[in-house]
Amino acid sequence: VMVGEGGRVKVLDFGLAKLAAPQSDERLGSQLATEMQTRDGVVMGTVPYMSPEQVSGRAVDHRTDIFSLGIILYEMASGRRPFQGNSSAELISSILRDTPRPLAELRSDLPAELARIIERCLEKDAGNRYPTARALHDDLQGLRTDPGARGVSGAAAQAPSSLAGVPPHRRRKAWLATVVGVALVASFAALWKMRQPRANETPATVAKSSVPSIAVLPFVNESGSSDDEYFSDGMAEELASALMKVSGLRVAARSSAFTFKGKAADAREVGAKLNVGTVLEGTVRRSGSKLRVTVQLVNAADGLALWSERYEREAKDVFAVQDDITGSVVAALRLTLGPGIPAGSRTDQTENAEAHDLYLRGRFFMFKVTEDGLRKALDYFEQALAKDPNYAPAYAGTAFAWTWLADAFLPPREAYPKAKAAALKALELDPTNVEARSNLAIILWLYDRDSRASDEEFRRALESGPNSMDAHNLYAISLCESKRIDAGLAEAERAIALDPLNVWPSWTREDCLCQARRYDETIAQHKKSEELDPNYYYIDSWAGIAYREKKMNAESVVEYQKVQKAAGVPLAGLAVTYARMGETAEARKILQDFLELAGRRYFAPELVATIYTSLGEKDQAFVWIEKSYEARSAFMSSLYGSAMFDPLRSDPRFTALLKKMNLAK
């Protein structure tokens, strides 16, 4: 434990033990990897901080580190070590024989409970110490959260301070020990304070950072069942959503934050990758009607804890826990809530715990964005609304699911009206719901073909949720598809900044650059997308188009074949490239695949139109374009700028179609 200039404290190294088999902590009912051991008969370490079993060369386990921590805590609290000696032999003898002087005699202002905790760590018999570091953590946490535990014992209260009359250099040593103590206890997520907070202080120890940004990592599910994963994920997601309403705070998007799920990521790594100043991490455990949530706010610059807390409530009180956590984080960051949103307010919550649980299950499946996942999500949202018909987030989730089912899996006329009705209902109940308003905006653009109304809804969505990657990204798509390229690129870049590890906004930027016919930049952006997800695909490959338009047909084929392998479906774009190369037989094979597919399931008809266009069969191309128009296919919006339709632009039928779609300029 080192103290540098300015009093900064760092824990540089601790302990010699090695990880072995996990040991059960019966109190928590969870597996804790705490069993550690060094070789029998070998004495290693720094003598003043060794345990009795360590100095005698006996077998050691994790409890020897608890003893060593006890020595450090004792020294931090009192300014002296518990065991004394002028040589290693005398020190070893003291460790084996002596009982440390009671802390109450050395520090009159020390909480009696802290003294008890430290003295338990220093039991000679390892069996009398804390059984696990988690048990020690819990007692330290209890000391922080129970004001009554901070009182000093009667004898200690009457005793004069042992530091009175101590020379200045000794007082400085004691002061440094106290500072180190606070830092090390914080590293165990306890944050016991050696003084009472001032009236104008927040409940957190706040780092001197002006970076108003945070990432909420997926909470660890400690319930012992993977079936509860939806709940821990949902808790983190809802906290992030609540923090997005904080004025002046940038919140990393869910998709990027959740790339760290299941990984032991250091807060500094998270901060660097997501460009945030703080990281919120936590664990969730549900057992019957009981809920335990532990959270820690970490400074991403140095990895030090700013604030931590544990909440033990009834499971039905999940909203109160979320409000408490949000309020504490806001206080720790010294920010103010946005206009009209008082601390702890939740305009979107339900009083029905069952409805909330069903909603979280729906969100879990919704984010898989597969046909099966989206349909399961709809079922859970429907059940949630049966429990609470006025639950706005469940309507917003319903709108999202129907929107993503449209075009990719279902005919637009079947899905979009349901999505729109759900979004409008969500906004009727909660006008600030950004998810519902963003989906309404894209429906107005893609399905209703009303660009003015769509722009207005996007404007309102971004006013309510400037941190929403989805809102910025969807707006970017609508802007670029309508040839407002500069504005679209700006929105795409904002989306990337908010969600840098999510491939979707990178794909959107490819779309914008391809619509602008900036093909070299499209290819460069695609390489960035591949780094995030080499298998991402949706309808077409912008890199495939870019290579084709640069007359690099061989590269276009390679790109399409790679995408086709990942997607497992025929690609119209590959047929277009084959036609451009003069390999019409290969193009017609793919065309036939689409025509056979048409009898089994829905797909966007304009895909067939692009193949006919590339083969020079304009009449058939217009037949399928008209089918696409009647189906209200979302991808008809690409007619305005897509290079694939260039051979049709001189035809009066094409101009008439643009006018019907309000795309003519």
Mean pLDDT: 80
Structural class: alpha/beta
Radius of gyration: 31 Å
* Sheet with the most strands, sense and barrel status: 6 strands, mixed
Q: Count up the helices.
A: 29
- Helical content band: 40-55%
Shape: elongated
The proportion of residues in beta strands is 5-15%
Low-confidence stretches: 17-43, 152-211, 337-345
| Distance between the first and last residues' Cα | 69 Å
**What is the number of beta strands?**
10
Helix/strand layout:
Layout: E1 2-3, E2 9-10, E3 23-25, E4 30-32, H1 52-55, H2 62-78, H3 88-97, H4 103-106, H5 112-121, H6 133-145, H7 154-158, H8 168-187, E5 213-216, E6 220-221, H9 229-243, E7 250-251, H10 254-257, H11 267-274, E8 278-287, E9 290-299, E10 305-314, H12 318-333, H13 353-366, H14 371-387, H15 392-405, H16 412-429, H17 434-446, H18 451-464, H19 469-481, H20 485-498, H21 503-515, H22 519-532, H23 542-549, H24 553-567, H25 572-580, H26 584-597, H27 606-614, H28 618-631, H29 652-660
Parallel strand pairs: 5-7, 5-8, 6-8
Antiparallel strand pairs: 1-2, 3-4, 8-9, 9-10
Helix pairs in contact: 2-5, 2-8, 5-6, 9-12, 9-13, 13-14, 13-15, 14-15, 15-16, 15-17, 16-17, 17-18, 17-19, 18-19, 19-20, 19-21, 20-21, 21-22, 21-23, 22-23, 23-24, 24-25, 25-26, 25-27, 27-28
